Amino acid sequence: MATTQEPGTADALETVEVLREALTAAGIVLPSLGADGASPSLNLINLGRVRPDVALRLADVIRGGCA
Description:
Elements: H1 12-25, E1 34-35, E2 45-46, H2 52-66
Antiparallel strand pairs: 1-2
């Protein structure tokens, strides 16, 4: 899915849900995915830590989408 948002303008909580849905559709779960509550003024998203197999699956999906 392409976005037309300017950098820093998307709402972190809404974006987390959009990303979670896309990852779920690709069979990927990032357990720590969420809005970064420690820096609300920066509107950051915490992708968290993942096992190596999940990171490799994510890389495969990204590569497939870029082809």
